[in-house]
Design goal:
With 238 residues, the protein is mainly alpha-helical. It folds into 2 domains: 104 residues, no CATH class; 88 residues, no CATH class. 62% of the residues lie in helices and 5% in strands. The protein has a 3-stranded mixed beta sheet with strand order 1-3-2, covered by helices on one side. Strand 2 and strand 3 form a beta hairpin. It is globular.
């Protein structure tokens, strides 16, 4: 549906319309993003997109088994296949997005205009301050007692903690007008937009802090997504 020629025709009509300049800033931005997405999607071969989707499904299921078994060798072959498919897409998108490296067009899909060079420079600067700080903390004579973080906490209690945390950050998951929910999955994530944004977490009886961190982290995404105006529809869904 995203690559239907009719979509391309409609986009062209918008850009060539004599009233285009009367659009406001958000409308022009959406028109730009519609065209950008269409140009990128139509350059990728349908066979490559289908094969990638199939391999992603296979890889996720194998990853779950490998994670449970703590055996990366189970996952490695499927990851290598997926990596090769993404490389093929990246090489095609390099030309479309006019980037310097194959990784840049993939980054652009998540963080527009971001590049490998910018990321490397940012992290190199962070290392200059963080690495010495970590070494200083490790070498310190007085170390904190972290035993509490490893006490066993029943899953039911952790679910109640998650609900309390959601309430603290003003994320409604309980009322009749709730605009979200907290579910369980293998790996935490956030999904949805505006008035229906949902998050997931994973509970470990002997590492309750893990779910606390994930609920707060994903909750941050919730607050961001819920604050978007619907006129920025494509920007929020990039």
């Amino acid at each position: 549906m995203a690559t239907d020629p009719e979509i391309g025709s409609l986009i062209k009509k918008v850009w060539e319309n004599r009233d285009y300049d009367s659009l406001d800033e958000a409308q022009k931005r959406n028109a730009h993003l519609f065209k950008k997405r269409y140009d990128e999607e139509t350059r990728l071969p349908e066979e490559l997109v289908a094969e990638t989707a199939k391999q992603q499904t296979i890889a996720v299921n194998v990853w779950k088994k490998a994670k449970a078994a703590k055996d990366f060798s189970l996952f490695k072959p499927e990851l290598e296949k997926l990596l090769e498919l993404r490389r093929k897409a990246a090489e095609i998108l390099m030309e479309v997005k006019e980037t310097a490296t194959p990784y840049d067009p993939l980054i652009d899909s998540f963080e527009p205009k971001m590049t490998t060079e910018k990321i490397s420079n940012t992290f190199n600067k962070l290392k200059e301050g963080i690495v010495p700080l970590i070494r200083k903390c490790i070498a310190a004579g007085k170390q904190p007692d972290t035993s509490m973080l490893h006490r066993r906490v029943p899953i039911d209690i952790q679910r109640r903690i998650s609900g309390s945390l959601a309430k603290i950050i003003l994320y409604d998951v309980e009322s009749s007008q709730a605009d979200g929910r907290v579910d369980e999955t293998e790996h935490p994530f956030t999904t949805g937009y505006y008035d229906d944004v949902r998050i997931t977490t994973h509970y470990y009886e002997d590492a309750f802090a893990s779910s606390i961190f994930s609920v707060l982290h994903e909750g941050g995404h919730v607050l961001c997504e819920q604050d978007w105006s619907k006129k920025y529809i494509l920007y929020a869904q990039r």
